Amino acid sequence: MANLSYINTEKSITDGRLSINRSGLNKVEHITDTIAWSTLCVAMVFYPTFAYFHVNLNNSNDRALAFVLFPLIILFGLFGLFRKLIEKKLIVIETSSPRHTNKKHLLEFLKLNGYEVFGESKEVIIVSFEENLSYDNRWTKTITFIIDDGRIYFTMVKNYPKVNPPVFFSHWSLKADLKKYFRDK
User: Fold this and answer.
1) Which UniProt keywords are listed (predicted)?
2) Residue 48 and residue 54 in contact, taking contact as beta carbons nearer than 8 Å
């Protein structure tokens, strides 16, 4: 989880990615986490591809594996790899308000939807919440909001004990909810 003082907001906004000033050990941890998840996703792509050549296409069960299950596993692996590689990309919500109004409305939105604010500064809000099946805060998601004039940027990252998987779909629902909320304001 990022500390407020480590987030470089100007660089994050210009690059379109969350820029965190990390220590050397944190950088190594992030790189090994990305490599571990990427290796799993690449295996999910290559294993069904190689297994396809050993399938008997005259058998209906093997045909179902080859033409239904294998493509789904490959697509899931590719999507997981894509999401892991762009997990720090900032999602933009356009507003028509200045920074202080955006912050006030965002805090109202977070309180209304039951999010607990973990850290807050002038232009950054960090929200951390526990996953549904988690026990004792082992699996959490962290949402980092960067507030600017006319825009709110955010990114969502999962924090697990061993390997941090990517966020697959929940960032889309949060984006839709935020757009709807700020459109009504």
Assistant:
1) Membrane, Transmembrane, Transmembrane helix
2) no
Cα gap 64→41, rounded to integer Å:
22
Q: What is the mean pLDDT of the chain?
A: 89
Q: What is the CATH number of the domain that holds 119?
A: 3.30.310
Both 93 and 173 in one domain: the answer is: yes
Q: Which domain holds residue 58?
A: 24-85
Q: Could you give the CA distance from residue 72 to residue 66 in angstroms, rounded to a whole number?
A: 10
Which residues, 6+ apart, have CB-to-CB distance to 143 below 8 Å? Answer: 115, 126, 127, 128, 129, 154, 155, 156, 174
- Domain identity same for 28 and 14: no
CA dist 153 and 144 (Å) reads 8
Domain count, the chain: 2
Cα separations in angstroms, 21 against 18, 72, 88, 93, 122:
10, 38, 13, 24, 18
At 23-45, the pLDDT tens digits run 778 788 888 989 999 999 999 99
Asked if residue 58 and residue 92 are part of one domain, the reply reads no
Q: Are residues 135 and 167 in the same domain?
A: yes
How far apart are alpha carbons 172 and 125 in whole angstroms? Answer: 19
